[in-house]
């Protein structure tokens, strides 16, 4: 990123946090200020008390200064602890907000972006940042707080020693400028070196982090692979222990190598910073000792200069945290910023979908063509079909023929490149996207169930109609299995988060996915290989009850098993991204073409067809 882009990232996170939290900036300032002042209090009062003792001050003044030092130290110590705690609490709230907005953006993002390589690169990079550093916002406030503490330490230290500089100048005349000028030039040179070294360290750290980012997902995958009980059967049946162990060892070595390199770099950096701080302190001690010897100030002033010098040197080192803010931290913010600011490509539409009790919705593809982003090949070309109300359609064809693309366009996971899709004569892009999607119940071939109670899996809600739930479970042929479960519909699926979780078979999972589609009760039902994981008996039951399952809804049924297509009114045959045939099973099987070719290839496996 350019320097200007880094500044934009910093500005972005400040605005985001200011809108979410009015206190974070104030708490950071107070925390940094109290932490900067705290070590300077004993340094200042030590000077006053020493001068009082050596110059014959009265006991009352001595006790007063001692008490004042103790009280102020206590107040600022307590204040620094309180403000640190409040600051961390607010930072954690912002961290949670950061995570929430990120996940909300991902879950509501246009589906096509989830398959975009550049978008996924930023998503994966940010997830590494979050899992290892607690997010980008937290790191920003941490390093910015350190920088601000350094600024306060430097300024307050200079304020405290400013009167001493005046004494030095007045006692030595014009020659008093020379040692001060030499000291200032030396300190400025060291500070510049600190910033340059910090910037160099940041660049090296970024390179290491990028390598770490590249292997993190693989490392996690193979690190947890042996303990994933779902993979245990394959490991044992196929004697894959050696493969798993070698992969585990490979990525462990890479991981250890990166950590070692990062640790070595940090040790070298910290050591160099320590040497520079010692040089600054040494310069201050030498300057102060010579001035004290020449009688420029008292013993107490000497103690003050020595005490402040340590804090001043530490403050200069803390200021170098700005290199991290404008380096690693701004890059991390950049990943988050690019994800949450990714604009929606899809036109959402504004027209409400007409509410109809009779489900009189008709969809038509009019000369539709589509290419996936980054591809030169058409996935669908010049497709024109009409899904008539209440009809049941089958979509068949070889893998890659365009069947799944047809469904993605129908459901508006993607938008067409050419032509248009209409609902009741109106382009579907003009409809409110959420309302349009509500017209469909879909069982995808790669459907997913969640590690939550079964009832929530089916209803996708915390509140649901219990009678309707059981009715849908019964229609899908899974009610008997549910009633056998210890907690019935409240049983949690899988053991990801609950040891009492229920493990279900692929066929049972597919029936639950079907029940979920039925529960939504939408006018269009899309079934993508709905019986692929079912046993022959269950598959036959689904086919036999197909019409009662979808009732008077418009249904689109995708299958490789052509015997199931006989339950549909019309069959669409896809090949090479084009619609090559359409008609009933009886019509298509009795005419030359792709359908009969596929049917003939499969018919040898059917009995009495």
What this model shows, in words?
- The protein is an alpha/beta fold.
- Among the domains are: 3-216 and 249-340, ABC transporter transmembrane region fold (Up-down Bundle); 450-521, P-loop containing nucleotide triphosphate hydrolases (Rossmann fold, 3-Layer(aba) Sandwich).
- Helices cover 63% and strands 10% of the residues.
- It is built from 22 helices and ten strands.
- The protein has helices at 3-20, 24-37, 40-54, 59-108, 111-114, 117-133, 136-172, 177-224, 232-237, 241-293, 299-319, 321-340, 403-410, 433-437, 454-459, 466-475, 479-484, 506-520, 536-544, 546-550, 585-589, 594-603, and strands at residues 363-371, 378-387, 392-396, 418-423, 426-427, 440-443, 524-528, 554-558, 570-575, 578-583.
- Strands 6-7-8-3-9-10 form a six-stranded mixed sheet, with helices on both faces. A four-stranded antiparallel sheet has the order 2-1-4-5, with helices on one face.
- A hairpin with a 2-residue loop joins strand 4 and strand 5 (426-427).
- Helix 16 (466-475) packs across helix 18.
